[in-house]
Amino acid sequence: MKQSLQLKLSQHLTLTPQLQQSIRLLQLSTLELNQELDRFLMDNPLLERVDLGEAPSTPSLPAGTNGSTEEPSTQPEAAPEGEFEGREEVWDNAADNLSFGEVNAYSGREDGEEREGMQLPAVTQTLQDHLISQLNLTQLSDRDKELVVLLIAHLDEDGYFTASLDEIFASLPEGTEIEAEELDIALQHLQHLEPAGVGARSLSECLSMQIAFLPKDTPSRDCALALASKHLDLLAGRDFTKLKKQLSCDDITLKAAQRLILSLDPKPGYKFGVVETRYVVPDVMVRKLKGRWTATLNQDAMPKLRINKMYADILQSRREGTNQQMTSQLQEARWLIKNVQQRFDTILRVTQAIVDRQKHFFDHGEVAMRPLVLREIADQVGLHESTVSRVTTQKYMLTPRGIFELKYFFGSHVATETGGACSATAIRALIKQLVSAEDQRKPLSDSKIADILAQQGIMVARRTIAKYRDAMQIQPANLRKSL
Question: Was domain 413-480 assigned CATH 1.10.10.60?
Answer without folding.
Answer: yes
